[in-house]
Amino acid sequence: MDDVDMMTLVIQEMSKEFPTLMETLLHERDQYMSSTLLKIASEHSSVVAVVGKGHMNGIKKHWKQPVMVKDLLLIPSQKPTSFVKILTSVGVAAAGVAIVTGIYFGCKK
């Protein structure tokens, strides 16, 4: 198995395990690089670009495809944290403090 096949397998497995991470680190970057390289190539007679092996297939896939670069440059807004999550976090923290305090005072006797 050569390096390209191994890289493809790693990308496929990472995409299954961490889809959001791979979307940002790989797929969105592929789209951005493809769009940027295409723009530069349309303005110059020759262009040389050095990219990571893991981005080659994605750049080829998105070549001459419409890419909304503005959307790629936006940082997604965070979802508001629910009251239940806050209450749960406070409860877990309080329980942790109670346990640690109990252990501390129990060992002190």
UniProtKB/TrEMBL annotation:
Protein name stated in the entry:
TraB domain-containing protein-like
Look up the signal peptide feature and give its range: none
Indicate the transmembrane segments per the record. Answer: 86-107
Which InterPro entries has this protein been placed in? Answer: TraB/PrgY/GumN_fam, TraB_PrgY-like
- Classification via CDD domains: TraB_PrgY-like
Does the UniProt entry include the keyword Coiled coil? Answer: no
What is the species of this protein? Punica granatum (Pomegranate)
Recite the UniProt keywords alphabetically.
Answer: Membrane, Transmembrane, Transmembrane helix
Any single GO CC term annotated in Swiss-Prot or TrEMBL for this entry: mitochondrial outer membrane
Pfam families, alphabetically?
TraB_PrgY_gumN (PF01963)
Mind telling me which PANTHER family this protein's record contains? PHEROMONE SHUTDOWN PROTEIN, TRAB DOMAIN-CONTAINING PROTEIN
